[in-house]
Amino acid sequence: MVLKQMASVIRKKLTVKGTVQGVGFRPFIYRVATECNLAGFIANTTNGVIIEAEGAEANVNSLIRRIVSDGPPNAQILSLDQQNLSTTGENGFSIIPSRGNGEISLMVAPDTAVCLDCLREINDPSDRRFRYPFNSCVNCGPRYTIVEDVPFDRETTSMRVFPMCKACLREYRDPDSRRFHSQTNSCRECGPRLWLADKHGNEIPCVDAALATANLLKKGKIVAIRGLGGFHLAVNAEDDDAVKLLRSRKKRPTKPFAIMSARLDNVKSYAHVTAQEEAMLESRLAPIVLLQKRKGNSIAESVAPNNSTLGVMLAYTPLHSLLLSGGFRALVMTSGNLSEEPIKCSVEDAIGNLAHIADYFLLHNREIVRRCDDSIVKFYGGNHTIMRRARGYVPRPIVLERPLKPICAYGSHLKNTICVAKGGHAYVSRYVGDLDNLETVEYLEETVAEMERLLSVRPEIIACDMHPDYASTKLASERTGLRLCKVQHHHAHIVSCAAENGVYDRIIGVAFDGAGLGDDGAVWGSEFMIADAAGYDRVAHLKYFPMPGGDAVVREPYRMAISYLFGMMGDSARALPLDVIRETDDGRLAVLLNMMRRNDNSPPTSGMGRLFDAVAAILGLCYNATFEGEGPVYLESLIERGVEDSYHFAFDNSSKCAVIDPSPVLMSILEDVRKGSEPPAISARFHNAVVRMVADICAMSREKTGLETVAVSGGVFQNTYLLERLTKSLSEHGFTVLTHKSLSPNDECISFGQAVIANER
Ligand SMILES: [Zn+2]
Ligand SMILES: [Zn+2]
Ligand SMILES: [Zn+2]
User: Fold this and answer.
1) Please, where are the H alpha helices in 660-743?
2) What is the pLDDT of residue 321?
């Protein structure tokens, strides 16, 4: 009986959806099917992959089990449908050409860091790919940044112009090779070319461009390097003069630069690395990980001044590895964006835009179809938070517990991303950036068109922010004939965090950030809400203080210190023995005070980011910010560990929405300054006060509503001291705490929240 069952032959059609192209899925199926003695075929389609398998029933089932349990490391299976077919008596299993018809419901794989096998080859003088800068295989290499269309095949990528040589083609056809059906397969004979050029773009003849570049970097030169998703500007990270030269040419005085090392032991020489951080650095994602600096390390102080951390990544392409093997502990690898414009990726653009910064260019002729920044993550107390979600993560979808209608959400104004949702999946785009210049706005439009095309989504609903002046709102409003849904910024933050965690019930939401337009026209930014996707009640916020000059306070945070100090103390603030008062000359002070008194360009704000700005300015740490959040980052960086006491906020519970008054906190800080307390201890007490205040408000909300789940979102929670302490404190008080898992808590997460809310309305 058993024998008879095993012998019964069946044929099944399997449709597998998800990230199943460009990840070695077809070779994997081919191998398993052959091992299982199955006949049939596998093909890429615009809808995923289709497998037809014929053979003994047990063997077909074993194939299905292994698809789920041992698929290739970079594959992400979202669904597997089975359909019974009649047997055909076919012999042998084959990979057949892609089928391009039908509805598209597939995204390409993210770019993946170079694998160890490929690295070994480029370091082996006897290997034919010795020192080949574009080595890759089915397990690694570029995907998202080179793909022009789906399905993923060489013909739909920028590798199209590099036909394989005989040796490469042999590997491509060999089921035992790790390059079997590798669409990026190439070698020095047939693949992309690397060359060195002067600052005008003229090629400099040399035998080994990577080696020549390493020698220039050793001499303190600045080299613009064309990489995977755009250009980096590189200098030797141990050469203080070179780093300072880069800072002055890039007009970036203090914002930390990311650095790259070849190996973990290099990293451990200058930074503390936990086991979790180690695993993340060496993962296929290979993001920038923010690590604690070691005291007395050899990295130039100018790489990350006033900061206790260093942003570090490991070489994630063979090219990077070759450069670093030229004898560097680390190279600065900062993105080639000028100010906040999107990364330049064509050779012509880069030479035009970076010639006044770079001394040389290291170029290649594999076109970057799609730009992509480096991702950034930071660990805290056993968890991590994503500071920027890009290379390695994009374009993986968020799998939703509740399906969404076809929606395109246009996101926020700063740190913009968009979100295209369809069915059970929401796709948050690459990082688009701050929509302050035309170029980034065009980049946003490009991203919308591309995501809708690649995912074949025709949106029924368009979502955007409530703010009428945001470029994202304007673009969204131009989409005629579709339902437009405007969403409050902090509501989007909170729902984004909850839905990412699969929670759709009403919860207590805490959103702390710099700015978002509120229902009352004020600039909100420290919002406690009882919320679900359908709506919210605002239950508490920081007391409003004016922002003299509106958005100018972001670049000139000392203005907020003036606002708070004079708002609390009136004219007697003039006598405070603080540099922020002394250094603001009388004329300027009069202008600011007049603006606030006349309510002229001084919108009221409850922004938590603004309170952090004010504290940083009062402590003399940052009057004018050269990058967003400079003061708060400095404030977090210098916290004295072991200081457990805290200042106290006051609460006014007289109306339905509680008002949190920071005045007692600021008065205690002034008192501590007068007594000669140092900023590290004051910063710790200030942070502890914020944690305590949030825990208190959550407890009050629980009393009123019985709700016990808290969702935490907003750029302020990139502060991991705050996030770690708050999560701990809330958990100890019996709350379930939801934090962002695969999105950043900053405004990158807004588009996803907008999509979920728009679906609900
Ligand atoms: Zn590889
Ligand atoms: Zn070749
Ligand atoms: Zn925000």
Assistant:
1) 663-674, 679-705, 720-732
2) 97
Instruction: Determine the Cα–Cα distance for residues 456 and 261; give it in Å rounded to an integer.
Output: 40
Pick the ligand that lies closest to the CA of residue 179: 1
Tokens 């990350």 locate to 304
Ligand number nearest to the C-alpha of 128: 2
Rounded distance between C-alpha atoms, residue 219 and residue 214, angstroms:
9
From ligand 1's centre to the CA of 228, what distance in Å? 15
**Angle, CA 354 vertex, CA 351 and CA 359 arms, to 5°:** 90
511 Cα to the center of ligand 3, angstroms: 8
CA distance 757 to 761: 6
pLDDT digits (tens, 9 = 90+) for 515-571: 999 999 999 999 999 999 999 999 999 999 999 999 999 999 999 999 999 999 999
Instruction: Tell me, in angstroms, the distance from the centre of ligand 2 to residue 366's CA.
Output: 15
Distance of alpha carbon 319 from alpha carbon 114, whole angstroms: 10
Task: Specify whether the CB–CB gap between 606 and 538 falls below 8 A.
Answer: no
285: part of which helix (H) or strand (E)? none
Q: How many residues does the chain have?
A: 761
Q: Which domains does the chain have, with CATH numbers?
A: 2-95 (3.30.70.100), 194-364 (3.90.870.40), 397-497+745-760 (3.30.420.360), 540-738 (3.30.420.40)
Run of H or E including 231? strand 231-236
- The ligand with the least distance to the CA atom of 492 is 3
119 CA → ligand 1 middle, Å = 7
Strand partners, 271: 293
Output the CA 186–ligand 2 centroid distance in Å.
4
Q: Among residues 57, 17, 16, which one has the least CA distance to residue 38? A: 57
- Please state, in angstroms and rounded to a whole number, the distance separating the CA atoms of residues 103 and 150: 11
The b/e string for 68-91 (b: 16+ C-beta within 10 A; e otherwise) is eeebbebbbbbebeeeeeeeeebe
Q: What's the pLDDT tens digit per position in 636-646?
A: 999 999 999 99
Tell me the CA–centroid distance for residue 168 and ligand 2, in Å: 4
In this prediction, residue 424 carries a pLDDT of 83
Cα gap 196→194, rounded to integer Å = 7
Q: Are 336 and 233 in contact (CB under 8 A)?
A: yes
pLDDT digits over 725-749, tens only? 999 999 999 999 999 999 999 999 9
pTM of the model: 0.90
Query: With a cut of 50, which residues of the chain have pLDDT below it?
Result: 1-6, 101-104
- The predicted pLDDT at position 290 comes to 97
Token pair in block for residue 100? 């391009």
- Residues 540/698, Cβ–Cβ less than 8 Å: no
Give how far Cα 283 sits from Cα of 323, 330, 341, 546, 694, Å.
20, 19, 29, 46, 35
CA 741-744-747 angle, to 5 degrees, is: 140
Bridge partners for 549 per DSSP: none
Q: Pick from 211, 376, 389: which is nearest to 304 by CA?
A: 376
Residue 232 Cα to ligand 3 middle (Å): 28
Rounded-to-integer distance, Cα 363 and Cα 359, Å: 13
Q: Which ligand is nearest to the CA of 74?
A: 1
Structure tokens given for 255: 């914002």
Produce one character per residue of 238-263: b if its CB has 16 or more CB atoms within 10 Å, e if not.
bbeebbebbbeebebebbbbbbbbbe
**Mean of all residue pLDDT scores within the chain:** 93
Hey, CA dihedral for 154, 160, 163, 164, is it positive or negative?
Answer: negative
pLDDT of residue 392: 93
Beta bridge mates, 571: none
**Alpha-carbon separation of residue 524 from 37, 600, 705 (angstroms):** 64, 18, 23
Residues 241, 245: Cα–Cα separation, whole Å: 6
518 CA to middle of ligand 3, Å?
12
Q: With contact defined as beta carbons under 8 Å apart, do 364 and 195 qualify?
A: yes
Mapped onto helix, strand or coil, the DSSP state of residue 337 is coil
Phi, psi of 472 (to 5 degrees): -65, -40
Q: What is the DSSP letter of 177?
A: S
